[in-house]
Specification:
The protein is α+β, with helices and mostly antiparallel strands. It is built from four helices and four strands; from the N terminus they run αβαβαββα. The strands form two sheets. Strands 1-2 form a two-stranded parallel ribbon. It is globular, with a radius of gyration of 14 Å. About 10% of the residues are buried.
């Protein structure tokens, strides 16, 4: 998430792009984490795992989500899913894909 923060702050992600994070942590823990890392976007709390289960990204047997990124187009449809995300270089790849998606009409 820090990579997304840095790219947003550097204006490397197109204007109008919405970035959201989500985790199974409580609202309070997410807020502390967001404040500590100075995130310019919201972290959603899915403490009841409703979204995580609906997306099929719950870690089996654990109350937490896999690291997955969903790129959603302006039409509200998922344009790309990045599974088994590794933080190194991920935000840059997503930013590149966001730019390509934005260029398509």
């Amino acid at each position: 998430m820090c990579g997304f923060r840095d790219l947003l702050n550097a204006k490397e992600i197109p204007a109008g792009t919405v970035v959201l994070g989500a985790s199974a942590d409580t609202v309070e823990l997410n807020q502390k984490f967001a404040d500590k890392n100075e995130y310019p976007f919201a972290l959603l709390s899915d403490h009841e795992l409703k979204l995580i289960r609906a997306l099929g990204i719950q870690i089996p047997g654990r109350p937490m989500a896999q690291r997955v990124t969903f790129l959603v187009g302006k039409d509200g449809k998922i344009a790309k899913i990045y599974g088994k995300v590794s933080p190194r270089g991920h935000a840059e790849q997503v930013a590149k894909d966001v730019k390509e998606l934005a260029a398509k009409k």
